[in-house]
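Meet today's protein:

…
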Amino acid sequence: MKSKQEGFILFEAYVGLVLLMLVICTILPVIIQYKIEQSILAERVDHYHFLYNTIQTIKVADLPLSMSHKLNEKIVEIDFYILNNQIIGKGTWTNAKEQLEEIFVYFQLSE
């Protein structure tokens, strides 16, 4: 005897939909977290490069120096000071997770 099944029954379609939603609900938070981490790393690299470029133009006579700078819609508090014959640059900002981040750049003074 041949059966004439032409398609899925409602229960099979429901199980398929539940499995699809389970996969989507599992992957979506991972993708969102990945995007947040990616933006934090990109911010960190941009702030580091800004500090690196700025520390090379600082005059020793101007130290210690504090300033604020807007970089990628974030306010970065920047401090430069001398310690042990080095200029130290410190940048502080709030990242995408609303956590305080700091980064340091060092520049050795010639003798």
Remarks:
- Helices lie at 10-55.
